Amino acid sequence: MGTRCLLVLLLVLLVLRCALLRHPPSADVQGDDMARQDEATGPTLLSQMQESLYSYWGSAKAAAQDLYEKTYLTAVDEKIRDMYSTSTAAVRIYTGILTDQILSMLSGDS
User: Fold this and answer.
1) Which candidate, 12, 32, 30, 13, places its Cα nearest to that of 22?
2) Which residues form the signal peptide (predicted)?
3) What are phi and psi of 23, to 5 degrees?
4) Which residues are within 8 A (CB) of 39 and not within 5 positions of it... i.e. 6 or more apart?
5) Cα–Cα dist 91/96, whole Å
6) Sign of torsion, CA 52 58 61 62?
7) Cβ within 8 Å of residue 35, ≥6 positions away
8) For the chain, where are the alpha helices, taking DSSP H only?
9) What is the rounded CA–CA span in Å between residue 33 and residue 35?
10) Sequence-distant (≥ 6) Cβ neighbours of residue 10 within 8 angstroms
11) Residue 33 pLDDT
């Protein structure tokens, strides 16, 4: 739920930023005509939004990677690997026992 709210807030801020870039609050009538000419030759709104999203995505990805590298603990990683190997060994043993029981039931040996 928190991630969705953050994404919505980010998109709203992005749209407001792009809207302010296109139409600054202090533009007068003559400046508006020049702004329209600049819009025709300048980058489109879609390309500006795309560029902003890519830059936000890159910075978020870099921050997440940095956080992951800071919080990585080798001791926890070793414990997880050890638990995985012991649990798979136990499953392998019990699967063998179950297979032997099923084969002995099918062959009719008591």
Assistant:
1) 32
2) 1-21
3) -130, 85
4) 22
5) 9
6) negative
7) 22, 23, 27
8) 2-22, 29-41, 45-71, 74-107
9) 5
10) 56
11) 58
C-alpha span between 17 and 49 (Å, rounded): 9
Tell which residue, 59, 62, 39, has the closest CA to residue 51. Answer: 59
Using an 8 Å Cβ cutoff, are 62 and 39 in contact? no
The residue type of 63 is A
3-state secondary structure of 24: coil
57-75 pLDDT, tens digit per residue, is 888 888 888 887 887 777 8
Predicted structure pTM score: 0.33
Q: Which residue has the higher pLDDT, 23 or 2?
A: 2
